[in-house]
Amino acid sequence: MNILLFFAGCAEDDSTEFTLYPDNNNLFFRKLFPNDQAQNDSAAAYLAHGITLQVHPKATYELSFDVDPNFEAPTLQLFRLVLSKDETEWHPTKVRSLEPTIVQGRYVYSFICEENDKADWATSLALDDTYYQGRVSNIRLTGDGAYSDHFSINMILVGNIEQEIKDYTIEELASSLLKEFRKQYATVTIDTLYINRAEKHPTLGSKYPANEPWLAGYSSKDFFVSELGGWPGVENALDIVLVHYINSDGVLGYSNLFSGNLGKGTESTVVLGTHVKTPYGEDDVSMKDIVETALHETGHFFGLRHTTTTIADVEYIVNYYDFGDYSNIEDGLEDTPRCNSTRRVLLKVSKTDINAPMPRIYISSNTSSFDPSNCPDADNYMFPTTVKDKVLSFSKQQLDIIRKNLMIFPH
Ligand SMILES: [Zn+2]
């Protein structure tokens, strides 16, 4: 009897509830990440017609924005995006409909993600069976995860790293890296640092010869060498891939913003060079700069933006149209200043890849007229370039985001 009632209830829901499918063809370019404090005006503007939300298993979320007193409260509809069999189209299937509660002049929609894996959900806002026309402003997605505040690091050496480094050994680098992570990532615990060599990978090793330099983005198409992520035996560690250099001038390291994947597959790695490509050849990178770049890129991995935005961070050009959200010119955090005076210089940094990796840029004293030392955020780990003679640290709000997002990522 109970089972019958249960099925009856479901059928009734499905047949009577109006479904308003997202009609924004570019919804993947309007993406909201949990606990991001940036302005995200584009996401707000498109919420009713469809944006994507990055969600993780078992995490609880709250999507909120300011009440528009000229309209009734809209219903938030959420859709799972399923890739078609020929992998050419995404099809939305409705996950649920939510009514808001009103808290201090804001609509708040609460939900739990019951997926088995990281997923992108799409949105629509419905009022009277059509798209909500009220103003959506000051949008926020907050998330609380179900996983631990511990993680381990897996440093993967690709190519002939050990032959090419001078002044330090891999063991010294690993020890310095772990020490700095433990000191700076003060809101989380780093259990262990593992060292693995790509040529010893049980299935992929033969693709990574140990006697030649690996140039990320040149030796193989994937800058991130992400197939090495999720290393057998340490599947859920943070994979830091160390290569000879990244095949973009002046780029010390790459991570995707809010990679969100401590397992294997895409967005499971951050990549760093022991050298940096320059217009004239290459430079050595000091051990200090490698360690600082590792902490910087890992900051992006856990959802931190640059304190001062570069053009590469916001620009998103597809078919000659720039989908970038230029409201996100800073990270939105109250305890990180940003640099105004040098924005024009920083804006020169342009994007090299459509996946929007977040770089750390090498400023060598003899090739650049740009001196970032006077920027108020030059001593923050998430400043976009290297800075000479600064002791770097994270702000309290940045460290809180790192912990919150680590606990969202399955591991
Ligand atoms: Zn960066």
Helix vs. strand class: alpha+beta
The largest sheet, given as strand count, sense and whether it forms a barrel, is:
6 strands, mixed
Radius of gyration, whole Å: 22 Å
- Low confidence ranges: 1-15, 341-356
**What is the global morphology?**
globular
Please write the string of helix (H) and strand (E) elements. HEHEEEEEEEEEEHHEEEEEEEEHHEEHEH
In total, the number of strands is 22
The figure for the number of domains is 2
Q: Work out the helicity level.
A: 10-25%
Mean pLDDT: 88
Overall CATH class of the largest domain? Alpha Beta
What does this structure look like?
This protein is α+β, with helices and mostly antiparallel strands and 411 residues long. The chain has 8 helices and 22 strands. It starts with a helix and ends with a helix. The chain is 18% helix and 27% strand. Strand 6 and strand 7 (106-112) form a beta hairpin. Helix 4 (170-184) crosses helix 5 (287-301). The chain has helices spanning 2-16, 41-46, 161-164, 170-184, 287-301, 311-314, 343-346, 396-408; strands spanning 31-32, 52-55, 60-66, 75-83, 90-98, 101-103, 106-112, 119-127, 130-131, 140-144, 150-157, 189-197, 215-216, 238-243, 245-246, 251-256, 269-273, 275-278, 281-284, 317-318, 321-322, 357-361. The model is unreliable at 1-15 and 341-356 (pLDDT under 50). It folds into 2 domains: 9-144, Jelly Rolls (Sandwich), CATH 2.60.120; 150-408, Collagenase (Catalytic Domain) (3-Layer(aba) Sandwich), CATH 3.40.390.10. 43% of the residues are buried. The strands form 6 sheets. Strands 1, 2, 4, 5, 8 and 9 form a 6-stranded mixed beta sheet that branches. A 6-stranded mixed beta sheet has the order 12-11-14-17-16-22, with helices on one face. A 4-stranded antiparallel beta sheet has the order 6-7-3-10. It binds zinc ion. The site of zinc ion has 7 residues, from helix 5 and strand 22. Zinc ion is lined by residues 296, 300, 306, 358-360, 384.
